[in-house]
Predict the 3D structure of the following.
Amino acid sequence: ERSAIIERGLNALVDSLKNAAELQIQAMHEMLFRKHGEATARVGNQVDAGGQPFSADLYLKMLETVQIDFDEHGRPDIAGVRLVMHPAMAQKVQPLMAQWQHDEEFQRRYRDIMLRKREEWRDRESHRKLVD
């Protein structure tokens, strides 16, 4: 407001611009997550936890839904696989994922998924059309 600029000077304008920028960033984040949700639902790789806490089952279910590529040595290239969550949730999930590294049942299920994903990848690669 004009009176704020008269009373506080340039600081009022700077504060107003910061507030407007924060609102714009928030709106952009909301739009990004909404569009991301629409896209993942459309292609069928959206996993809804239904209010359940994050678990090994949910993580493995998520891996089942995404396309995974493999390198020339047959190792999964999961660099493109992103798990997006609130930072507070990430703090809770990271220790769980560290525990799963030592869980034999989780590792067996993970290996089974990766074997299936490798076969899917081989099928995709063998049916690719090469262009000159």
In short: Helices lie at 2-8, 10-43, 56-65, 87-100, 104-126.
